[in-house]
Amino acid sequence: MPAITANVAQLPIRLRNFFARYPPQIYSSLAAPRPTPPAGQASTEQPLPSPYTPDRDAKGAQKEDRGAFSVARSMLWDSRSAPNPFLPKKIYSTGKWMGPRYGLRQQADLVKLAAKYNVEALLPPGPKSTEYKAAKLAERGLRIKGTGIGQKVKGHKWERTMEARLEDRRKAMMEMPEMIRLWKQRGHGRGWRQWPKR
Amino acid sequence: MAKKSKSRTIAVRLISMAMTGYYRTMIRPRVHRPLSMLKYDPVVKKKVLFLEATKGGKAK
What processes does the entry annotate via GO biological process terms (chain B) (predicted)? Predict the structure, then answer.
């Protein structure tokens, strides 16, 4: 960290004020414990269920497990003694939620500013941090239907039936010389029995 | 009242036996036997057998 602390004086006043109020030694994401999946649950290996599985409304379909370990969620670390100013807090005596000290817009400003001065790691973990956004994206996957694991798109009917139709055509073309020979043999259609149905 | 007279000719559909869905429409006398001929099918790019499609798949 000495390389980072060396140029504190060059930081903009807004960041300096923030760091004065929330010293990185206590509040920063470097000080926060690293998220580790609980033992016996290798959820980092398993793909999380995607909300775009086609049968998500089907009976007996597996709902997304909200209690499952999530790297992104565990990044948003908060402690009783030093409440994270980027996260809302529940006040247990009243049961009400207190908003974060810094709203999402201000957080985004701070994160962008800190990233510019290369001190983003000194900010508390929050939903606007690059790390959190990357983890969230990795968990959620692309928002394009059919790109997730186990997903597929229905497609057009001509796409779905193409294989079968090509197979039919291939078979018909294999039998075509024999058919023509028979047709010629039977008086060019005079004795023909199997006319196609309309 | 006089019955409406049927036309002497009818339009028929000749279906490609290559199972491509391609067909040609032709006119033949009503009393004629069903049409069948070798014609070019642009889907398979070959000359294939075309047979007249009949209602119910039967013909005299």
Answer: translation
- Each residue's pLDDT tens digit, B8-20: 999 999 999 999 9
pTM: 0.47
Query: Which tokens is A111 given?
Result: 């994160």
Q: What's the pLDDT score for residue A136?
A: 82
Q: What is the ipTM of this complex?
A: 0.84
Token pair listed for A74: 């565990």
Between chains, do B18 and A176 touch, taking CB under 8 Å as contact? Answer: yes
Q: If you ran DSSP here, which 8-state letter would residue A47 be given?
A: P
- A97 interfacial to chain B (CB closer than 8 Å): no
Contacts of residue A154, Cβ cutoff 8 Å, sequence gap at least 6: A54, A160
Contact between B33 and B8 under an 8 Å Cβ cutoff? The reply is: no
Q: Which of A169, A180, A183 sits opposite B44 (nearest CB)?
A: A169
Rg (CA), chain A: 31
CB within 8 Å of chain A, chain B residues 8-37: 13, 15, 17-20, 33-37
Segment A159-164 long-range contacts (CB within 8 Å, at least 24 positions apart): none
Q: Does A162 touch chain B (CB under 8 A)?
A: no
Distances from the Cα of A45 to the Cα of A36, A66, A93, A132, angstroms:
13, 17, 39, 18
Distance from CA of A160 to the nearest CA of B (A): 16
Distance CA A186, CA A180 (A): 10
